Amino acid sequence: MNLESFLLMRHEVMLTIALLIILIAELSTEKKNSIINLSIILMFITTIVGFFPVPEGTLFGGMYQTNHMTVLMKNILNIGTLILFLQVAEWIKQPQYGNKVSEFYLLILSTLIGMNFMISSGHFLMFYIGLELATIPIAALAAYDRAKSISAEAGIKLILSSALSSGILLYGLSMMYGTIGSLYFTEMAGAFMSTPLQTLGFVFFFAGMGFKISLVPFHLWTADVYEGAPINVASYLSVISKGAAVFILAILLYTVFYSIAPMWKNLLYVMAVMTMTVGNLFALRQKNMKRFLAFSSIAQAGFILLGMIDGTSMGMASMIYFVLIYIFTNLGAFGVVSAISVATGKENMDDYNGLYKTNPSLSLLMMLSLFSLAGIPPVAGFFGKFFLFTSAANSGYYWLVFIAVINATISLYYYLLVVKAMFINNNDHPIAYFKSGFTTRIALLMCMIGIFVIGLYSPIYEFIRMFSTGM
Amino acid sequence: MDFLTLFVVVPVLTIFAIVFTKNMKQTRLVSAIGMGVQLILAIALVFMYLAEREAGNTAEMVFSHSYVWFESLNIQYIIGVDGISVAMILLAAIVVLTGIFASWQVDFLPREFFISLIFLSAGVFGFFISLDLFTMFLFYEVAVIPMYLLIGIWGTGPKEYSAMKLTLMLMGASALLLVGLLGIYFNSNAGGGDLTFNILEIAKVNIPMSAQRMFFPMTFIGFGVLGALFPFHTWSPDGHASAPTAVSMLHAGVLMKLGGYGAFRVAMYLMPDAAQEMAWIFLILTGISVVYGAFGAIFQKDLKYINAYSSVSHCGLVLFAILMMNKTALNGAILQMISHGLMTALFFALIGMIYGRTHTRMINQLGGLMKIMPVLSVSYVIAGLASLGLPGLSGFIAEMTIFFGAFQHPDVFHRVLTITAAASIVITAVYILRVVGQILYGPVTNEHYLKLDDAHWYERVSTGVLIVAIAGIGIAPLWLSDMINDSLNPIVHQLMQAIVK
Fold first, then answer.
1. How far apart are alpha carbons B49 and B89 in whole angstroms?
2. pTM, whole model, 2 decimals?
């Protein structure tokens, strides 16, 4: 193994180095702030380095493969994590998290490494290891609020449900292995027929992935975990973790399972309709902002399937583009919720009544993020949704598009409820004015710029389109 | 930069300028200047357009420019105007400016109010200049969403309910519209070319009949909801009644016209065969709109509800005329859009001014206003007369043209519908005259009213401009109707071809 082939796994290597540096740094310093700043700087460097051009290639005898599209996906995840690190700083400085904060960063980075390996895998075992590495540390993170029993409960719930889903997924993989005799993507590709055992294997596999993406009916863990887990962990789960799972699912569907496309297209159709509708209907009644965003993110996952169902490079591009927008948008919304929670401890929608009078910029930011989630122009969510719908319509799924847009309208209702709380409702004791920390403001500013620029500035879409491949 | 894009740039710049204003006086001054510039631009556009046609430019769209936006999907920012869009832009500019003057005294969060209002107007102007379905849809949504905040924050009565109802119904309509537009897009290569959102390109293509049958109703209803098509009109009365004055003006005056304009420019123009085939269904629905709206207005007690139902009736007439599909009726439809836009804006402005003084809009609590505020009352009478179609005012020209055109259809179905719709004029006269008699004449119902003052200068500007425009069109309609008439040729040609096939 020479240096050049080593450089192919640059993303993973950089993240591992960053992880080790933080581990060592913790031994040598007692200061919380230096660890926090160091993590941000390391993540920043990793993100920048990720953008340098890299050749395509495979490693470890085909276990690991990289191409421009996977690099793009990893870069998107890196950007999201960087913003998250900026948002986290203020929250993690709170005294209840003690003096040792490096665990948080170590766990996040290890999940990110797992996701990167998962996206780049060329073999189902590699994929499985990446998947586990991406999931198990998050359960520890969900239980990060050591003093709260609800947080511990979230951790347990997450670990149990992901263990179950991994089990199902593995079972599905073993059936596939039994019928094909290989777990290499390249060898399995095209070997799929609609024989009963293979179909069953695929359905088990898909159910396992459905857990990770929290598609209905595999979504039941989502709301409880999001509510119990610390806000920033919930936002990581809903954005980065979900994004990575969506990416790998699309890659697998397009490269390995393309020969049974008619079957998984039907499956995706049904799942998309259920996920959007159920996610929306549950979101309507939520009073807790974290649960609210949890159900809204379930509904958003349903929209993402609309890009996947097309199977062309256009569908892939619109999906990656949507995830990119979704990262900025949802981190914007979660960032505001987190900032308010850190400053005041309030997390209910009623607490937001009259927020605009005391904290106008946070309210505006929240409104724009919610509009972007709902798909209202001129913010980026509109473009993301429009292109998803375009790619679904490209395959002739006009009714699916119609159901999706009706769902987008329903979602607009509950997003507007928050807008109404902030701008219209009266409150004698609104949340007092507070000034959030420097890093939080940087993070929110980045989200804001992203929400406007990614949509209106078309070269970003064209760039993604250039590297996207379809079936 | 090209001239037409200025219509979007000026509002955006005005918004940025408003952000830096410090108090209400500065805010409204900046808004008035910005929208004043917009009106000057609109008038300049009319003259430039007429000069261009005079010089022999016979292109379908003039001042046209296109910029590639999302290249791989062939989405472009294409702009251009014909006589119809020029007229609509002029209407919008007048209504927006008078709306600003009508909300001169907004003291609750004035900056946010004017920003939302002007943002909405940017969407409206953008919609009228764009010739690309994607851009058009984008501007359409831009124009709808600020309504939520405008009604929700500054409205009156059950404002939160009305704001939510209006937003959700219009966004639900855009669901249909979006599917319709995507359907058009994916059939735009029927002639062998690339997929495109460009309206002029698509017009040259014969979209397959099966696709037209599916997407014409979607597109037409999608736009029709905004034009208060029965049975999707219910957002309109509640929304209008709860909205603050300027928003009612803009909404009834301009935003509802987006529906008519879109139905005609997109649904009918691009899918003429299905339009010919299905017109009868929608003709019945619009006929119901016309009559039902007028009857609805009779039974209302709130001035704003009366005008909201009257708008349903008048906007129904616009769609009705569009579906008649001959040149005279189409010309009447456009004239009716402009006439109704001006006159309903005047109505809502006056209602706002009366409400601001008396704090009631119930007609049984008002009376004898003519003695107390003669200027406002006379203006109200003028608006009323325009609404019931008195010759010499704009309403007469528009309605005459519509019914004249509609009656050209020799068959029984069209004749019966036309006569029914024409009967609504009588009903209109009933509710208008009843209101005028009740609130303007007769005894003063409340002695507090005697202390109220008449119109202030800004209110005089607002109503004066609108009255001049209404009378101007009524007295000298030909320049406008000629300008529209020439631009109708392409669409009439499309519709005629559809008959021949």
1. 12
2. 0.92
